[in-house]
Amino acid sequence: MVAAAALVDPAGRVLLSRRPDHAHQGGLWEFPGGKLEPGEPVEAGLARELAEELGVTPTLMRRLIRVRHRYPDREVLLDVWRVDAWRGEPEGREGQAIEWVAPGDLPERALPAADLPVALAVRLPPACLITPEPEPGPALSRFLESLVRSLEAGVRLVQLRVRSLAPAPLRALAREALAVCRERGAWMLVNGDPELAEAVGADGVYLPARALAALRERPLGPGRWVGASCHDERELDRAQALGVDFVVLSPVRETASHPGARPLGWERFGSLAGQANRPVYALGGLTPADLPLAWSHGAQGIAAIRSLWRDHRWSQP
Fold this sequence. Notes:
Helices cover 30% and strands 26% of the residues. By secondary structure, it is of the alpha/beta class.
């Protein structure tokens, strides 16, 4: 197993280091870290590697993502942690080049294939808002007002899920919602309709499980997010085969919206999330207060309707 770190500075930049030319995947940029010694705890091993490679000691860290990848000549398992505070000033103590990179520039960097899901996880925020069904007529303006309040409270990823509107008013609402999101630096995905996402210029599409099963290739072009709803191993495998960027795994707990659905529970969620090889949001009866628990079970963060649609402010723990 390899322990790796996404060091994030106060400006939001991420540290990359360049692999030696003679090494496996030589010359590519990577998230720093290294192999664990037999029986070595992940946190201790990562701290050792960061001290040896960069001369820093992490003081605030949490698990970000686990990635299993098979190269033609070997298989690697990355256990990646986000490090937001450390002692010392990072430097290439083994002669390697290092560089601070804005998250939005990561797709342009030459990274090993195993590091690509890590780059996605670094870019994605810790919460995904799923919008409630808007009421028709004049109430649509209140829908947008509530969306603005959610964004001002900290939401940076929105899934616009609207099933009750006809095509024309839905397209108009999607354009207005997208403008609101863009003004506040948030991404907006359209639920279930790649053509609508393309037409309004949305940042991507979110695929319900039924759409995930029906597709034969990834929708939309490069540079757009594709998320998917998953509930079990079969759907996770399908999401991987299509190459989606992230998944929402549910339900973790019982919810009023799906009273008959059997909850996964956190242990089952963690097991499935560890197989996804991409960022996984936890959905089902969760609030921002559940973020530390979600992170401890391998989640990117939480997805929610009610707890993120309220007017009160929330902050990342």
